[in-house]
Amino acid sequence: MGNHVSSSGEDQILRLDGEHIMLREFIAEDLDRFHSLTWQPEIHSYLPGWNVSKDTRKEWLLQYEIPETKRFLQAVKQKEDVGELRLRLGIILKETGELIGWCCSGIKDELPWPNREIMYAVSKDHRGRGYAAQAAQAMIRYLFDQADVEALCAVALVRNLPSNRVLEKCGFDFQGKLEIEQDEYNSYVLRRSNGERAMTE
Question: CA nearest 157: which of 44, 15, 30, 55?
Fold first, then answer.
């Protein structure tokens, strides 16, 4: 398993390989499926603010999210600092090609350094199969190996037991509890040296 970029004419799409899933850049054709996923109660109960109107989702995806991912990947290609750029990738089930969730990385202002976060969500129809962990591991490998990121953080609502298990499985170290917008979260950190060890265990 590894990372690769496939080309189609002038367009290049990043794909990160997992066992049963892959991560790839969002494309315009993902809009309908992406929008429907954000409205699953099982997702927006843990990710409030993601379930916006379809017009807003379209504007965000096409005007901000896809272009910013391109800028992130261009910075990586040119071996520049990614700074505060965000990387947003869809989780694709290899067996069917279906978009079943997403895995993203960006700066989380509420946290002290290191505050480059990874976060993920998987459709209610595909939970309990290890896909979130596979996605997170693929994202971690890419950020540590290609984007020269030294450390990652993650937060999970205390009540979101599956998400906490994913972070522990990926080798994140528990840092303590914190409150964000009146919700209680567990806070985690993974440093590159520890991440490399976790990926080989």
Answer: 44
Contacts of 27 (CB under 8 A, 6+ apart): 13, 66
Q: How many CB atoms lie within 10 A of CB 133?
A: 21
Interval 27-62: pLDDT, tens = 999 999 999 999 999 888 888 788 899 999 999 999
Domains of the chain plus CATH, in order, are 3-200 (3.40.630.30)
Distances (CA, A) of 3 to 13, 16, 37, 121, 146: 11, 4, 25, 21, 9
Query: Tens digits of per-residue pLDDT, 138-153?
Result: 999 999 999 999 999 9
Which residue stretches of the chain are H helix?
31-38, 41-44, 54-59, 66-77, 131-145, 161-169, 192-200
- Both tokens of 64, joined, read 């901000």
